[in-house]
Amino acid sequence: xxxxxxxxxxxATATRLTPQEAANLCVGQLGxxxxxxHGPPEIRPEPxxxxxxxxxxxxxxxxxxxxxxxxxxxxxxxxxxxxGGPWRRHWYLPMVFACPxxxxxxxxxxxxxxxxxxxxxxxxxSAVGSLSDPRPHPTQCRHLTGQKPSGGRRAFCGVQLAxxxxxxxxxxxxxxxxxxxxxxITNMNRPPGDPLRVAGTPIMNHQYFTDLGIIAALVLxxxxxxEGLCASPTLAAxxxxxxxxxxxxxxxxxxxxxxxxxxxxxxxxxxxxxxRTCAAILSIAWKVLKxxxxxxxxxxxxxxxxxxxxxxxxxxxxxxxxxRRSRALAVAMRKPWSGLxxxxxxxxxxxx
Length: 352
Ligand SMILES: [Zn+2]
Ligand SMILES: [Zn+2]
Fold this sequence. Notes:
Layout lengths: L7 H8 L3 H5 L7 H8 L11 H7 L12 H4 L5 H6 L14 E2 L4 E2 L68 H15 L7 E3 L2 E3 L1 H18 L10 H20 L8 H5 L9 H15 L4 H18 L1 H8 L6 H6 L20
Antiparallel strand pairs: 1-2, 3-4
Helix pairs in contact: 8-11, 8-12, 9-11, 12-13
The protein binds zinc ion (2 copies).
Pfam families: TniQ (PF06527)
Protein name: TniQ domain-containing protein
């Protein structure tokens, strides 16, 4: 799903596509990852295979796509009537949570998800279920179920994911989340001549989204420190539930003192599957990251860093020292805030 690598030419030959057409089927061709491969050498970080990048950046890549049931229902053309609408590459990006065509939030799970037989952690599973099974229609759920094998092949879920009926979401939330979605998609396709900026400093597309994921992790870990930036009380309630879940995960997981940084920050290092909760967190992170100066960014981050540090200092350090963050974000997350750790309450701290 990310990059066909050595399989590109054989795949292109077998499918009668040009190599570029075959490559374009992959998520790695999206603008968000493009700068990683083709950015100017002086600002390109150490070369990282995309598959590895996607594993460590679970705010950048999902192994399980979200989907728009209306897109899957097709556009009424003979081709789409037969095969359904396309599964879009963007649906593998956690930062894509809405469909701009149908003006709705995406779904993230099969309605019959509890029937699925889950073999491994999400990142260890194949991004497409029952890969070699020709039976499911492209718009049917391909997950295996726990049922006994029948006729030599394992039973798959088969629930129809396409649905032409429009969604019913709270009308006061969707316009703001759709505006955010449009802005994020525009940023993903930003041309090299007009780079994105963090605190006024030009950075590459993928770095911008890495930074956004780092701040999103801090929003969760420090919740409810940034509640004032949330678009609505119902979205705040969704983040509240997610934040409790992550905290619970971090406490029930066996933690060893020598555990590496990746594992320590893991409970906060992935985007929620639910589109609405994910969008709510990202909308706060986006408001923080768009501060135009380093001082502004630092001031916006300080309450999050202070509260996150109180909740879990080791995880905060691990998130904050993510080696793939932009230099501008690294500067804004430097540690003057640590002096306030045992100081006055957040809301009365002078200067913040
Ligand atoms: Zn759609
Ligand atoms: Zn299913």
